[in-house]
Amino acid sequence: PICIHRPGAGERPGAGRWRGIMLDSGSLWLDYDGKVIAVNHQSEVEKNLKNELIEKDKKGLHPLLREFEQPVLICESDKFLIRIDCLKDYEYRYATWPKGSQQSSKPDLVLKNGKIVSDGSGGNHYFDFKNGDYLYRVYVEVMGSYEDPPASLEIYKSGKLISTQIVTKIQPEP
Fold it and tell me: pTM score > 0.90 for this model?
């Protein structure tokens, strides 16, 4: 059965639903003209294909990196190849190699216990990873101008920004 949100007493129609019309507890989203804007459902065939692709991806990685739930982001700056994976319980892992390296080679740096932070309501977000006095932040620009880079890497030492690198390639596209 499909459940349509009906406003409660004192609630305006659409209140709290500014992203569109939600059906079936978010399985389907429509804009206010009835156009489908999101389908949040996977069939068994799609789930199996996703799992097969993840397993194939794991086989191409250095053994240190083969344990994860799903890949999140692979991007490249002028200096680094960066990979972020989701581990169990929504913890994130950051791995980096020199630009041009293969992911099957041993990464130069692996950081766990990363967190994702939403930045506004347009989908922009960033991942933070700590390593002693250093903070590595990968910022993903989902909603911005056409000229904005898709992502950036910021490195902080003791709270002070020491490096910013523009990401030129990103998978998946935001």
Answer: no
